[in-house]
Amino acid sequence: MPETQTNGAAPPAQAGAGPSPYEQAVIREIKNWKTPSDSVLAKAARWGSTFFFRSTRLFYKIPGVQGLIETGMGALLKRTAKATQRTIDDEKFRLLDGYQAAGLDVNSLGEIATLDLQAVESQAKGIRAKYGALASVEGAATGYVGLAGIVPDVLALTALGLRTASEYALHYGYDPTTDDEYLHLLEVLDYASNIVAPSDEKPYDCDASPTVQLSAQAREQVLKAGVREAAKSIAGRLVRNKIGQFVPVTGAAVGSGLNLLFITRVSTAARMCYAERFLERKYGVEIETL
Fold it and tell me: How far apart, in whole angstroms, are the C-alpha atoms of residue 5 and residue 2?
């Protein structure tokens, strides 16, 4: 359902003012993204992912490994994510400056909701390439040393993934430093980290603000539990993805490639979901009806 307006968002577009041609094209793109492809290539990719997933599960059968990764790494990852979020405030001012430099009268995140999606996405271009390059270099450097590089790699990759998703959130008019958006960002990272997913992986659900109707106490409990579980899941999945990085030197290629793939998945999920939420907020109806 269309989300409650936050961040000073503008009211839905006036009746009769439908999506622009560019917005209609993005709506089709979002719907296609949510529908798994049945092409031969897509089926082969899902089969390969399932095979690798089943192979790496053997690693998790070693006594104590899964608990150590999900609990210990999950706690480290949660602290890393929080520290990263504290660096986002300066990005807000740079973002607004970018809109104004493009001749758009935008002085707050809420005012972004009045723009055509094409203007928004013209400002957001380059995010994937910037963080993909950084993640690839970082993965090659930590992958070169093999097993010893996995923990710092996972933490650094999480920080880069969170920065990537946060920048998309900002460009579409959402404040990633709020508790609800922070949880939504972690859910995007959790989806993206499922690189070696089984073939029956379900499309990502972009619905946000799950705590909006809860009492303050219940909301806080749901948010804490959500952050804790998301951090554990991301940590477990990213370490599982990195098993091929255990071998020094050759691990550089694995680390670089997996990191680039992770940031690509983060970028795609963040763009699709924030575009969907942007359009639903702008027009006041679910995207399926646009």
Answer: 9
Residues 198 and 222: beta-carbon distance below 8 Å: no
State the Rg of the chain over Cα: 19
The candidate with the shortest Cα–Cα distance to 275, out of 257, 258, 253, 290, is 290
Distance CA 273, CA 172 (A): 10
Helix (H, G, I), strand (E, B) or coil at 70: helix
Interval 159-174: pLDDT, tens: 889 899 999 999 999 9
CA atoms within 13 A of residue 11's CA, in its CB half-sphere = 3
pLDDT digits (tens, 9 = 90+) for 133-153: 999 988 888 776 666 677 788
> What's residue 174's pLDDT?
94
Nearest-10 Cα torsion for 212, 214, 216, 220: -80
In 10 A of CB 116, how many CB atoms? 14
Q: Residue by residue, what is the 3-state secondary structure of 20-44?
A: CHHHHHHHHHHHHHHCCCCCHHHHH
Global confidence as pTM: 0.79
Number of other CB atoms surrounding residue 99 within 10 Å: 20
What is the overall mean pLDDT for the chain? 76
Helix axes 216-241, 179-192, angle to 10 degrees: 20
Q: How far apart are the first and last CA of the chain?
A: 13
Q: Summarize pLDDT for 23-72 with one digit per residue, the tens.
A: 999 999 999 988 866 555 545 545 544 544 554 555 555 555 455 555 55
Dihedral sign for Cα 193, 6, 117, 39, please: positive
